[in-house]
Amino acid sequence: QVQLVESGGGLVQPGGSLRLSCAASGSIRSIYAMGWYRQALGKQRELVAHISSGGSTNYADSVKGRFTMSRDGAKNTVYLQMNSLKFEDTAVYYCRFYDEFNDYWGQGTQVTVSS
Question: What is the pLDDT of residues 82-93, one digit of tens each?
Fold first, then answer.
C-alpha cells in the first residue's frame, strides 16, 4: 500500500508562484508512473503533468512553459513548480502514482489564484 500526501497549496496572486509537493510512503516501487492532476469547481479532473516510469515528462498545453514537474527518488517525493499562475489555474491539485496493478491518489491540495 502507498500513501500520498500533497502539500504546498494556498492563495496566490496572478503571476505568482507555488510549489506543490507529494510525499509517498509505504511500499514504494521505483517503476511507478506519476502525475499531477487538477479539478476545478464544476469541471472534470484533468491531467496537468506526468512523469513516466522511464522518466520522460509531459505537460498539458495550458501549463507548458509555466509548470515543471520533478521527482526526488531518494525522498519518494514529486514536485510541481507552478510559475506565472493564472486565475484559471485555480483548482484542487492531486498527485497520482500508478502502474498496471495499482493506482494511488493523494487527498488533494487547494490552489487559489486571486487578486
Answer: 999 999 999 999
